[in-house]
Amino acid sequence: MEREDEETGMIEKEEGGKKVWKDVVIGVLLLCTLSLGISTALLAAKAANKASSIGEFFCQISGTIPSTPAPAPSPPVISTELSKVVDETMSACSNQGYKYTGETNCTCMDCYTGARCQTFVGADKCSIDANGGSPYMFAEYWVRYPETEFQMKLSERLGYLPAGIRSRLEEGIRKLHKLAGNAVTDNMNIVFGDGSTPLLTLVSTILQSSTNSLPLKVWAQKPFYSGYSSLSYANLVKFVGDEENRTTAAADEKVVEYVTSPNNPDGEIRTGVLSHPLTVFDKAYSWPMYTFIDQPFNTSAHPLSLWTLSKVTGHASSRVGWALVGDKKLADAMQAMACPIGCPVESQLVAIRAIEHVLSTQGELMKWGRAKFTERWGRIGEVFRNVSCYKVRNPRAEGYDRYDQKVYKQTPPYLWMECLNLPDQKSCGDMLRSYGMKCRDGEYFGMPKSFARLSLYVASPVFNVLIQKLTNMFANTC
Amino acid sequence: MEREDEETGMIEKEEGGKKVWKDVVIGVLLLCTLSLGISTALLAAKAANKASSIGEFFCQISGTIPSTPAPAPSPPVISTELSKVVDETMSACSNQGYKYTGETNCTCMDCYTGARCQTFVGADKCSIDANGGSPYMFAEYWVRYPETEFQMKLSERLGYLPAGIRSRLEEGIRKLHKLAGNAVTDNMNIVFGDGSTPLLTLVSTILQSSTNSLPLKVWAQKPFYSGYSSLSYANLVKFVGDEENRTTAAADEKVVEYVTSPNNPDGEIRTGVLSHPLTVFDKAYSWPMYTFIDQPFNTSAHPLSLWTLSKVTGHASSRVGWALVGDKKLADAMQAMACPIGCPVESQLVAIRAIEHVLSTQGELMKWGRAKFTERWGRIGEVFRNVSCYKVRNPRAEGYDRYDQKVYKQTPPYLWMECLNLPDQKSCGDMLRSYGMKCRDGEYFGMPKSFARLSLYVASPVFNVLIQKLTNMFANTC
């Protein structure tokens, strides 16, 4: 394809640590002030308990940053001066919605309404979407770092393969793996694709052509990632995780095993069970927010692993995925198929901004993510306590964590639950949906219908509703 | 894969026509003032003729817009007030380089140097890159429309498939085809991919699986687009345009024909010669900048055509391509492989901005492109006039143009030339390179080495050098 020579050049370096910290402190203080201000305003609007607790919660979460007593509540006056420091995407919508660049209206979160999303409609009067894996909660982190914003000009970088972008992203990713301690990238080739899903399909296609068997059979242990069952590539690849058991799959050396570790939906740490020559590791969730990191992923032993920006920084819609590939020839073949003339420059620029921020703050995002998910799992533990008909089925292993240098108990991003004592014909998903919780049915993961997955990636106000809805359902049906 | 429900919402509407026009007039006046100012400054820096002519040329090109006498030359003082209206990406670098957002240094064009790219190194002392198809010249258009810039926040649109984006882009593309008059999109499905090249490879893969022959044979008439010869998809697809002649290819009904029309490298208008059931149209260059549009492409008769943003608005690195597909099932199969969880949101936002600008200005960009390429072909005609050893081989057909409602002679974006009387063993490409013109050899297009392709997408200052170099080469060798 039309490959262009790269020019020389570099884009702006991230600001140094000191400046960032100063901005963070100012930003968080302002945001807390605003949150409290908005909360105060909402008190008058009869949404007092809800909004107030959200405002306080947000400030608690930011407690990992050097704190100063929050100023007394004041009206939400947003001056031009402040708007230079604060990202108002969420605060302009009472932190219960989003006001996107250039838009005049708020897009409210589930269960919130009003011009500024200031009104909670009531947990029993609305539905929440906890079906997909959209990492909405990360917006709460990024609004605190408005210095990561940048101007997108239509006159810039028009040529194919603009200079310095890919190499800078690659450098950032290698450093990110080192910071997280989750993979050794030395001697590994990095292949970029628009998300890890397309990389997965093309890996399968390449492997297919090397096995000379049509279609290529792909297998994963149950419960497997629901996406695999719809993975097909023009009849070249067939997922047989549902129809073949472990013994059958193990008997055919040509079957490729997909190992998702930590696993989706349950967070289980896996190493593969078929011991076949063709194994692909899906490492989307191997980050400190979700699990302990006891040792870096052994890329020499497993020279084909897939990673995605979506689950590290939350930028799912940017579609930035990468593979760590030991074999140079395979890496080249993959890159010739994925982004043959380079991946989109704009999403690479976003990825560079996000990753360099994580690096320059020594992983502040990961600490924030851990605190957030730990808090959420604490509340899930409370709501399931002494409940006999509904059970949490995430194994939630504990292990020594190199990142924090102490034992960490897994905090997976999905709640994988089982409904016991279900009425005939009813699935766990049906039960959850009847209480207004959109979820993913166990059958999509190769499991009985008594299982269901709920996303814990929802924004904080929506998570509060989720907890309330589970509480109500347990009280009424168990 | 993880498909998410779309939320409701819309992003900002483009500004109305009136406001845009006002800004355009102000912007162009300011830019001409700056260009002239910079030219004046450069006079003192011994680069007088060159820079001055560029400044004037730029203002001439903008003559399609209501003009006012340009103010007298003045020093290049750029106040904060002006910087709000003018995009300084190029003007900050003497219009002979680019200063990207956040960067402190200029990236100079070929043959220009200095902190502000103010110095021309001399046509005989430098090389220019006219090999690839990077549409650099479009930057000269977009700097005139700073109102198309937008802020990219890391806190926005984190979820998969953000609401309203794909549908808005699709709507823009249908209107763009209508404005250009180059395709009927009624009853056609639009499939998005990251560029048209990946769409081409996946179409081939899908077609392959329907023919049940391995590998799928793909053929195109010579001269064919150089990218096709490297098109391969894990041994599933094989390009046979080089090794099979028309008769052999026609005899095998399973051979897929790629029809590039207007053709790359020469701009020829093609309709396909094999008359096989499987034909894919590559319509990258079917826009008013390059050719007359006598009638919209008949999508009912040819229900599989590929298009790309790169050659309409110049945003090659954004990787936005689309296919117009008649068959819904094929369209769905393609979309399940290309961007299975949506294409990158950032590049879609850029595409929306660019396309809605073209629509709201009634195709100003296309008029600008025609003027630009017409001027360039005029200069090429002059330099080749009465030259016996070098010939232009673009057919440059004339036809009635619905767009301008008069006859238009094609202005293709590549110069396809032949070198006659070459010394033994030497190729036309060798000859051009020996004079510092990087080009693409005829052999990549399935043609003898006496042919070569030069890109006319280079920026204006580089095009001036190209003309100078050709003039020198002709004078010395012919």
Automatic annotation (TrEMBL), chains A, B:
<dbReference type="GO" id="GO:0006520">
    <property type="term" value="P:amino acid metabolic process"/>
</dbReference>
<dbReference type="InterPro" id="IPR015421">
    <property type="entry name" value="PyrdxlP-dep_Trfase_major"/>
</dbReference>
<dbReference type="GO" id="GO:0016846">
    <property type="term" value="F:carbon-sulfur lyase activity"/>
</dbReference>
<keyword id="KW-0663">Pyridoxal phosphate</keyword>
<protein>
    <recommendedName>
        <fullName>Alliinase C-terminal domain-containing protein</fullName>
    </recommendedName>
</protein>
<dbReference type="InterPro" id="IPR015424">
    <property type="entry name" value="PyrdxlP-dep_Trfase"/>
</dbReference>
<keyword id="KW-1133">Transmembrane helix</keyword>
<dbReference type="Pfam" id="PF04864">
    <property type="entry name" value="Alliinase_C"/>
</dbReference>
<dbReference type="InterPro" id="IPR037029">
    <property type="entry name" value="Alliinase_N_sf"/>
</dbReference>
<dbReference type="InterPro" id="IPR015422">
    <property type="entry name" value="PyrdxlP-dep_Trfase_small"/>
</dbReference>
<dbReference type="GO" id="GO:0008483">
    <property type="term" value="F:transaminase activity"/>
</dbReference>
<keyword id="KW-0472">Membrane</keyword>
<comment type="similarity">
    <text>Belongs to the alliinase family.</text>
</comment>
<dbReference type="InterPro" id="IPR050478">
    <property type="entry name" value="Ethylene_sulfur-biosynth"/>
</dbReference>
<feature type="domain" description="Alliinase C-terminal">
    <location>
        <begin position="128"/>
        <end position="473"/>
    </location>
</feature>
<dbReference type="InterPro" id="IPR006948">
    <property type="entry name" value="Alliinase_C"/>
</dbReference>
<feature type="transmembrane region" description="Helical">
    <location>
        <begin position="24"/>
        <end position="45"/>
    </location>
</feature>
<keyword id="KW-0812">Transmembrane</keyword>
